[in-house]
Design goal:
globular; alpha/beta; 12 strands; about 220 residues; seven-stranded mixed beta sheet
C-alpha cells in the first residue's frame, strides 16, 4: 500500500493527490479522520490496517476531505459544518448519517483521547483534534505550510484569524501538528507566520498572484 505510511504503533497516514487522511487504532474502536477525494478504496485500506470497527470524523467538509464518506457511517462533524456539507453532499451520502461533535467533546479510543477544538474560518465548522497526553494536534487545513484557500462559500478571514489566535494560546498543549496538506509533521511555531499573513492580507500589503490552476 504505497499510499500508506505507518507513523507509530496504532497510527497511520494515508495520502491521495496532496490531501492527507489519518487512521488511529484504539482498544475497541478505530478512528478515520477525513476521506480524501474518493479515488482510493479507503474502506478496504483501513480494513487492512485494523480489524476494529472504524468511526469517521471530518475536520471539515470540502470535497477533498469527504470523497469516501459514503463508505463509513455515521459521519461525525461539528454542527456548524453541516450546512456546508449539505450544499455539496457527496454521491451516496445522506444527512441522516451525520452526527454532531461539539467543542470540548473527547473522543476516547482508549489509547487515544482526542479533544474537539472548534476553529472556524476556512469553513464554518472546521475542527482540530488535540491529543493532550501525546501532545499532538490534527489541524485539518487551517494550520499547514501549503495554500490555505479562503475563497468561496463559507470562508471568513476574520473568524480564521480568531481561530489562529486561539490555537496560538493553546500551543503550549502540543508539540507536533499533523496537517491535511503540505509538509508533516509541523511545530507550533508555524502559527504566528500564518496569522501575520492574514493581517498583511487584510491590510492590503500582499501582492496578488496568478493561481497555478483555474480558481473561482
Amino acid at each position: 500500500m504505497n499510499n500508506v505510511k505507518k507513523i507509530s504503533e496504532h497510527f497511520w497516514v494515508i495520502e491521495e493527490n496532496g490531501v492527507r487522511m489519518f487512521v488511529f487504532e484504539g482498544e475497541k474502536q478505530a478512528m478515520v479522520v477525513d476521506t480524501g477525494f474518493g479515488g482510493l478504496a479507503l474502506k478496504e485500506i483501513v480494513a487492512k490496517l485494523t480489524s476494529l470497527p472504524a468511526m469517521l470524523v471530518n475536520t471539515h467538509t470540502d470535497k477533498d476531505h469527504v470523497g469516501c464518506n459514503r463508505d463509513f457511517g455515521p459521519v461525525y462533524m461539528h454542527p456548524a459544518e453541516m450546512d456546508h456539507y449539505r450544499r455539496s453532499l457527496p454521491e451516496g451520502c445522506r444527512m441522516e448519517d451525520v452526527r454532531p461533535l461539539w467543542e470540548g467533546y473527547v473522543i476516547d479510543l482508549g489509547r487515544w483521547k482526542f479533544e474537539v477544538i472548534l476553529t472556524p474560518g476556512h469553513t464554518p465548522g472546521s475542527i482540530m483534534l488535540l491529543e493532550r497526553e501525546k501532545r499532538m494536534l490534527i489541524s485539518g487545513d487551517s494550520i499547514q505550510d501549503g495554500d490555505i484557500f479562503m475563497f468561496g462559500s463559507g470562508r471568513n478571514i476574520q473568524a480564521f484569524q480568531e481561530s489562529l489566535r486561539k490555537m496560538l494560546k493553546m500551543s503550549r498543549d502540543f508539540d507536533v501538528i499533523w496537517p491535511s496538506h503540505g509538509s508533516y509533521p509541523l511545530k507550533p511555531d508555524i502559527i504566528p507566520g500564518i496569522l501575520t499573513g492574514t493581517e498583511e492580507l487584510l491590510a492590503g500589503k500582499l501582492p496578488g498572484q496568478e493561481p497555478p490552476w483555474p480558481m473561482p
